[in-house]
Every structure is written in C-alpha cells, then in structure tokens.
Design a protein that fits this description.
Largest sheet: 6 strands, antiparallel
Strand content: 15-25%
Shape: rod-shaped
Number of helices: 9
Oligomer: single chain
Structural class: alpha+beta
Length: 461
C-alpha cells in the first residue's frame, strides 16, 4: 500500500489507463467472440435447414410408409460413412438413417409438430469405436400427405468440429490482433502521458535550478492549469527572498543606527565628563538606543507576512482604531464616516492591516478639521484569484500640494514641522503596500477637499 502512495504521477496514470485499456479490450474481445460464435451457429442452422428442405424435396414415402432417400442427395457426404453430415427420419413405426450415419450413435430428437423446427447443439455422440464427438442438429416436423397425412420429423446432423475449427481460427486471429493493438496503444499512451506531463517535469527541473541557485525564479510559459501554481511558487520565492533581504537590511540598519549612540558614549568617557553629566548622557543615549531597537524590531515584524493568510474583516478593525483615535482627538471633535463594503476582506497579517489603517486614519485625524471618510471597496476576482480590496481615507484638512507628495512620503519628513510626529507613518504605509504588491495614490479628496490616500491591493492568487 505504501509503495502505491509513492508512485509518480506518470506511473499512476499509466497503471490506471492500462487497467482501463485491458478491461476495454477484454470486453471488446469477448463481445466479438460471442458475436462470431452466434453468427457461425446461425449460418450453420441456415445451411442445415437448406439441406433438410432439399433432402425432403427429393425423398419419397411408399405405401408401406418406408422412407426412400434420393439417389443423389443435396450433399454427397450423406452417402459416405463418418463424413460428419448425417440425416435421420423419425415417425410412428419408422426410423431411417443416412448411409453416413453407419457406426454412429446419433442423439435422438423429440417429435415435432408439422411446420415446427428446432436447432440444438453441440450434442455428444459416440462412434463405433467408442470415440466421443459433438454435433449440431436441425430438425423439422412435416406431414406426408401422399401417405395419408403421415407425420414425420426429419433431422440433419453436422459434426461440430468444423464450426469449432472456424471459431478457433477466428479466436486466434482476434486475440492476436487485440494483443498487438494493446501493445501499440500502450506505447502511444506512454508517449501521450510523457508529453502531457512534460510541463510538470519542466517545473520540477526549474525548481531544482532555483534550489541550486542557478535561477532566481520559474521562467518560461506554462499551461493554463499550471499558471496559478507557477505564479504562486514565484511569489513564494520572491517573498522569501524579500524577507531575507529585509532581515539583512534590518540588522544592517540596526547596527548602523546604534553606532552613533555608542560613539557618543565613547566620546563622553574619553572626555572624562562628570558623574552627573555622564549619567544624564548615558540615560539619554540608552533611551535613544531603546527607541531605535523598538523601531527596527517593529519594522522587521511588519516586513514578514504570509502570502496565503486567512481573510480578515476590515470593518471591525477600522471601528476599533477609530474609537481610539476619537478619544485622542476628542478636543477637535472630528467625525469619521464609514463606507465599507461588508464583503471586503484583507488577505494578509492582522498587524499589517492595523498598521495600515492606523497610520492612514491617524494622519487624517491629525490634519482634518471636522470630517474623515473611510471607504473600502472590493476589487472583483479574476479567474481563480482572490478578490482585491481598495482602501481610501479622505479628510477635510488643508490637503497636500502635488509638488509636495513625494517629499511627504519620505521617511522622517513631516508635512508641517509644527505638528507633533516622527514623519515615519506614511513610510510604514509604503513599506506595507510594497510588501503586498499594492499601489498607493495620494491626491486631493473630491468631496471633502483635503488629502486623499488610496491603497489598492489587486486580486492575487
């Protein structure tokens, strides 16, 4: 059982198709064999019926009801003993057999009514030497009017060996050709399976090249059924490579960021600063290093996400975030309105969704005068892809001039230096959007007149 589970796809399909082929050819052969046997027996019946009618037409019955056979019978074998063709007549007080039946013990047949006929066989007979054989017999019931409406049953027997020999020759030819056809079909089937499974073999070879570092991703064109698989594998490869690169960058950024505080502490130690001064400097630099570490760890956590995470309902998460922001900005009296499609789902990590909504909504609350509008719409799925989602946050604040959009999106840059903040919220949004291969558009809100941030995550596998 375990060996069957480890069979390759080609071996499984070849085994299944071979079983189906053998069953089909076997059933076809059996049906053709039975059809030929039935046809041979029907042909024999017709031939024996013709012989019986011809024999009776040339025969006579005298006044003493003695059967007189024709001098020249329809077939000369009726005259030769043991020829394999025999004739008998049965009637009340009458029993006649052809010369060919000499030394043969023919099986009796029941008396038939006038006009009635029967065909039986093969029936066993025994010759004068005790040898067994088989015959087919055709019998017909007649009434002889010239002898006073005397009823007779005329029977013609023929050796079954001739029919059996025809059947044997046919069977040898039939099963021989079927066996040859099976071999040819198996060969064709093997070639077809290898051709149809070649794309999978090609994908396997490309994966091996990726594993050995000879290629960066799956390349080339694939059949329609394998396109989602190839794209999913490429996404996985790129995601893992991106995760590794982000991890390296995070460690590099962390080391680089910590160099400055450490250098400051080293310089203070070398300058023989006073205890109180040194203590204050150490406290400040430790606080700074703690912030650096927290930020870098947070960014590293945001950079990792599952490609195939369970869909997350957006409306509930947005309500939780807005409830907190309304408390923080209670003195401004900002009202947040929702236009969220109940079918909208975010296919990713919960932390990424919270960071995305939190930064966009907090930015809107910070700059809004009275109103903030959150709109979430579903992007229809294409084929077997998952539906996408479009998140739009608008406010009625001063907005962002087109020439300042690129500058505002830079890390550490704030739209107004007088407003409290670190200038990294929108940069975090960009990182999340880029991680999910989405798009971020910044412009002016058509209804509220302030800033408009629109994030689109297209349908994906």
């Amino acid at each position: 059982m375990r060996a069957w589970r480890t069979l390759s796809l080609q071996a499984r399909q070849l085994a299944a198709a071979s079983v189906a082929l053998v069953a089909f050819l076997g059933g076809t052969g059996y049906a053709l064999d039975r059809a030929f046997v039935d046809t041979a027996q029907n042909a024999l019946r017709d031939r024996l019926a013709a012989l019986a009618e011809g024999y009776l037409a040339e025969s006579e019955l005298d006044r003493s009801r003695a059967f007189i056979s024709p001098e020249v019978p329809p077939d000369h074998r009726f005259l030769r003993p043991g020829s394999g063709l025999y004739a008998t007549v049965r009637g009340e007080g009458l029993r006649w057999e052809s010369a060919s039946a000499l030394g043969r013990s023919l099986p009796p047949v029941p008396f038939l009514a006038p006009g009635e006929s029967s065909f039986e066989g093969p029936l066993r007979i025994v010759d004068a030497y005790g040898m067994e054989n088989s015959v087919y017999v055709y019998s017909i019931g007649v009434i002889w009017e010239l002898a006073g409406d005397y009823p007779l049953t005329f029977s013609v027997y023929e050796d079954a060996a001739q029919v059996q020999e025809q059947v044997n020759v046919y069977r040898r030819a039939l099963w021989g050709y079927l066996a040859l056809a099976a071999l040819v079909l198996l060969l064709v089937q093997t070639l077809v399976l290898r051709w149809s499974l070649w794309p999978l073999v090609h994908v396997e070879r490309e994966l091996d090249r990726v594993r050995k570092g000879l290629s960066q991703r799956l390349s080339g064109r694939h059949p329609r059924e394998l396109e989602p698989l190839a794209e999913a594998i490429n996404n996985l490869i790129e995601s893992e490579r991106s995760h590794l690169e982000r991890s390296r960058n995070t460690l590099s950024d962390l080391a680089h960021s910590l160099k400055t505080p450490l250098a400051v502490l080293r310089s203070r130690l070398d300058a023989d600063a006073g205890c109180a001064e040194l203590r204050a400097e150490v406290q400040a630099q430790v606080q700074r290093m703690n912030e650096i570490v927290s930020y870098q760890l947070s960014r590293a956590a945001r950079s990792g996400h599952s490609l195939y995470a369970a869909p997350i309902e957006i409306a509930q998460r947005a309500e939780e975030i807005v409830a907190g922001l309304e408390k923080v900005y209670a003195d401004k009296g900002v009202l947040c309105e929702f236009e969220i499609d109940p079918e909208a789902r975010f296919h990713g990590e919960l932390g990424d969704l919270q960071e995305l909504l939190g930064n966009l909504l907090e930015n809107a609350f910070k700059w809004a005068c009275r109103r903030v509008l959150l709109t979430v719409a579903v992007l229809p799925a294409v084929g077997s892809r998952r539906p996408g989602v479009r998140i739009t946050v608008e406010d009625d604040g001063p907005g962002i001039a087109p020439e300042n959009v690129e500058r505002v999106l830079q890390r550490g840059v704030r739209g107004d230096e007088r407003v409290q903040g670190h200038g990294i919220g929108l940069s975090i949004v960009q990182d999340i959007v880029a991680a999910y291969r989405g798009e971020l558009e910044v412009g002016r809100a058509p209804e509220l007149g302030g800033a408009r941030f629109q994030v689109s995550f297209p349908p994906a596998y």
